[in-house]
Give the backbone structure.
Amino acid sequence: MYTDENSIPWTGDADFMQIGFPKVVPSINVNDNLPLPMRTLRVFPNSDNYLIWKKYCYSIDIGTAGSDLVRILVRASFYYGNYDGLSNPPSFELMFDGNYWTKVQTTLDNKPLSYETIYVVKAKATNICIAQREPGMNPFISTLEVCRLRYTMYNAVPANYALFAMARGAFGSNKTIRYPDDTYDRIWFEVPSANAVTSDAPSITTGTTYNEPPMAIMQKAITGSNLSFWVPDPSAFNVYMYLYFSEVTSLSAGETRSFLLYRDKILMSAHRISPPYESVLELSYTNLYLSNDTKFYLVPTANSTLPPILNAMETYSLSQELNEGTDPNDGEYIIMHDWISLFSFKG
C-alpha cells in the first residue's frame, strides 16, 4: 500500500493477477517528476508469435444492486520506460465491457500516457481489457484507476454511449487540481494566464450542478474583452463540451456581466450568459464538430459593463453505441476479483 502526495491510496496487484509479469522501469529512465506508481508495470508477453488477438482483462466489482445503474470514471496509464531494454515501445488496444476504447501507442518519451473514459455500468462488474493486435507487441499497463460517479453526472450522454476525455482545464489556475479538491479525482490541468482573476466569494456552491465541479477550479477564472479559447488536438466528431462559470465578485448597482458564446462566427448560446456569484453556471454543448482551426469566443452583450469570464472547461468525444455487457471471448482471460483495480481503487 502506498499513499501519494494527493492522499490517493495505491495498491499493488501481485495478490490479484496470476498472469503476466511485474517489471520495474530502470532508474536511468526515471526522473523525479515520475509518480512512484508509474515506475512499475505488468507486461503480458504472448509466446505465440502467430496469435495476434489476445485480451487480458481486469474485472472490477462496481457493487450495483438490482436494476441500479452506476456511472464510473476509468483512467488507464502507461509508461514504457524501455523496461525491457529493447527500445521497442509496443502498441495495443484498450477495451471495456467488449467495447473498443482506444489504440495505445507507447513511446520512448519520459512522459506517461493516460486515457480516461466515463460510462455507465449495467452489470455488477466492469471488465477493462488490454488487447494485443500485432505480433511481437507485448501489451502492458502501469496503473488503472476506477472511481464511481453520481449517476446524474454527465447525464447529457445516453447510458448506451461513453465519453472519451479530450481536455479538462482550470482557467487562471497555476497548478493542476485533482483529489482531494475534486472528490471524483478528475484531473483539471492548469491554464495560467496574465488575465487571471481570483474570486472573492467566501464559498462557492457547486453541488447544484449536474457535474459537480470542485470549488477549487471555480475560485479562479480568466477574463478579457476579447476572450477566446480552443481545444488542444481537437479534430473529432460528436464532441461534448462543458463550460463552467462563477462570478468572481459581488456586483454593485449598475454593474452587469453578460456575454454570448460563439464557435468561430456561429452563435452557440441560446441566451446571454450571466455567471452567478457564490454558485456555478454549467453549460453543456453536444454533438459538436471541432477542427484544428476551431476557436470559441466569449463576446460581451451591448449592455454589459464588465468583460466575459471563464472558469473551467471539459471536452469529450462520444463513443459509438456500446455493446450490451461483455464480449463472451473475454472469459478466457478475465481474472475475477471484487473491488480490485490495478494499483488503485477509489470508491
